[in-house]
Amino acid sequence: MAGVQGRVALVTGCGSDGGIGFATARLLRAAGAKVAITSTTHRIFERLTGLGKVEGETFAAIADLTDAAQVDRLVSAAEAALGPLDIVVNNAGMVQTGFDEPSQLVQDITEAQWRRGIDINLTSVFLVTRRVVPGMIERRYGRIVNMSSVTGPLVSNPRGTIYSAAKAGILGMTRAQAIEVAAEGVTVNAIGPGWIATASSPPEEITAGNNAPIGRPGTAEEIGHVAVFLASEEASYLTGQLIVVDGGNTIQEYKGPAEGYY
């Protein structure tokens, strides 16, 4: 299997050591890819140290992906350092360091909060994809993996209007973009994580994960392995799909403690 060996990948949202983005970057690197990583703060250079600083093999940069000019500079710099991008994992979103993003009922959401939430979760994916697709089409090869969620496309929670709308929007973009580039050797897919235990997970999310059929939350690495497969050469006939990785949570009707029903 050729996998991702020798391919050049960009993974966004890699600032957290225990997050899905950095886990994916590590797995891509271990599988033989050249990997560029980015986040909005200087901690991305700590992640680069953890990934391994190897000239021509790894690269890190700070970028605000809601800004088209910064996206352009990021992609140009990554390609100058590693070569043309074959793989993009659009993982950035959810929350951003330095910004307070309180969950609110729809009637309490301000226009500024709406725009900010849509920008960091949805517009960022659009801007990165728009920038990289022409090169992929020209080379007739590309793998775009978008980090959506089960929240929005399949289920939701109170005070989740912005996040749900953005993550559902990612799935809609994924499908449309997949059709547009399918004949050009480029695939576009989305991952729908369920309850995943990360450093930012509050106790109630761990409890929810413990009530999934598998009996625990998922790990960042388990999402990363799915991303690596979707980024591989072998996933050539899989496009426009949402791959749900949630320990079976969305297929069960009863979501309370197992002893209450099972």
Explain this structure to me?
The protein has helices at residues 20-30, 44-51, 68-82, 111-139, 161-181, 203-210, 220-230; strands spanning 8-12, 34-39, 58-62, 87-90, 142-147, 186-193, 196-197, 218-219, 242-245. Helix 3 (68-82) runs parallel beside helix 4. Helix 1 (20-30) links the parallel strand 1 (8-12) and strand 2 (34-39). The N and C termini lie far apart (41 Å). It is α/β, with parallel strands linked by helices. The chain has a single domain (8-260), classed as Rossmann fold (3-Layer(aba) Sandwich). The strands form 2 sheets. Strands 3-2-1-4-5-6-9 form a 7-stranded parallel beta sheet, sandwiched between helices.
Which features characterize this protein?
alpha/beta; 7-stranded parallel sheet; 262 residues; two-stranded parallel sheet
